[in-house]
Amino acid sequence: MQPSDESNDHFRAPAPENAVEAQREKFQAREIAQVLSHYDVGVISQIREYRRGSRRAPKLKLETEHGEFLLKRKNAGHSHARAEAGHALQARAAEGGVPVAALVAMRHGGTLLALGEQLYELYQWVPGKRFERDPAQAHEAGVALARLHRALAARATAYELPTGGFSDTDAVRRSLYLADAEARLRADTQARAKIGELVAGFDEHLSRIEKKLVEKGLPLHPTVVCHGDFHPGNTLWFGVTLGAVIDFDSARHEVVAAEIANAMLQFSLKHRVGENPDAWQIGLDTDRLRAFCAGYCSQPATMAHAELAPLLPWLMMSAVIAEAAAPIARDGDFAGIPAIPFLRATSGLVDWISERTRAVSNVFGA
To answer: Structural domains in the chain?
Structure first.
């Protein structure tokens, strides 16, 4: 299994390489030996650090006489109950026809290893490639998400998972205000005024989004178990065939429309090159957007498409604002990209969707 690769194309820009490596968590030699003693992987020929995905969750690629594996230490603070729920959801997804990276059981059984306060998991290696922005891939991603939602809804099970997400506009607004405050701390007087102007624009959008979501019936939608982070970086591909959906660490209870909206966004973003947001293309690739929606709608529905479609563009805008605000609230910038140009690009994308809400809604279920 390859962990998620954070790239500009799914709205998560990578930090500069030297900054990432300075902060990346590492395995210790003694730790590796202790962890692997719980698994039967045979003679190990090579252990290599795998520097992708969250820097707070270190990973190793293992080459052994029994095959290739990926060892992952969970982020600090990830609860045992939530990690076990994630493993159960992966099993449920596989039963529902969604390809996932297979978890490897320990010698004494079980797939989640707890040593002290640390949690570990071992996966069979999936040698897939990254999403290549092919509409045929977007279609298959839509199929997979629909199957995943159906699989997770098949049996009512109580999981210890957080609740909420992009549908909670109050939470998005709180994150936006924190981003405003953190970015202003690093800015001069002129820049603070520009940050305030951009944040005020997002605040206006959120007020309209909130109003529209209520009008279109969001409060009547139940929360369900969702993957929580379904984007191209959490998929692996063999050409246009989906090899695996990975990383269930963000699984949560959320309205299904929010996950669909975010996935539509992530799989259709126009290609963005470099770390200058002012040079990025603005908007969504309509071929990939249509393909993703066609894939999702080709599968048996967990909710009527007519109930979901009107909500989607508004939830997409909420997702765009939320994913820009969260890292700026934490760090004052967006993974090394200054706040102002990134917020400017974010504003352009929100405006683009806002001008096409009916068209976006009509694509789903068309």
So the answer is: 8-124 (3.30.200.20), 135-363 (3.90.1200.10)
Q: Rounded to an integer, what is the distance from CA 136 to the centroid of its chain?
A: 20
State pLDDT tens for residues 285-335: 999 999 999 999 999 989 999 999 999 999 999 999 999 999 999 999 998
Cα distances (angstroms) measured from residue 54 to each of 57, 175, 238, 273, 289: 5, 20, 23, 21, 27
- The per-residue DSSP string of 69-83 comes to EEEEEPPTT--HHHH
- What whole-number distance in Å separates Cα of residue 134 and Cα of residue 287? 9
CB 348 within 8 A of CB 270: no
Q: What letter does residue 281 receive in the DSSP assignment? A: P
CA quadruple 146, 147, 150, 152: dihedral sign: negative
HEC profile of 189-224 = HHHHHHHHHHHHHHHHHHHHHHHHHHHCCHHHCCEE
346 Cα distance to chain centroid = 17
d(CA 161, CA 230): 16
Tokens of 52: 């992708």
Which of 209, 294, 325, 211 lies closest to 258 in space, CA to CA?
209
Evaluate if residue 13 carries a pLDDT over 70.
no
Beta pairing partners, 64: 44, 67
pLDDT digits (tens, 9 = 90+) for 43-71: 999 999 998 877 889 999 999 999 999 99
pLDDT tens digits for range 118-173: 999 999 999 999 999 999 999 999 999 999 999 999 866 667 889 999 999 999 99
Residues 159, 91 contacting (CB under 8 angstroms): no
Residue labelled with tokens 């978890």 = 103
- State pLDDT tens for residues 234-287: 999 999 999 999 999 999 999 999 999 999 999 999 998 888 999 999 999 999
The pTM for the full model equals 0.91
Smallest CA-to-CA distance from 262 within 229, 226, 309, 225 is with 229
Give the residues across from 284 on adjacent strands: 269
Residue found by looking up tokens 């594996």 in the block: 69
How far is it, in rounded angstroms, from Cα 118 to Cα 77? 9
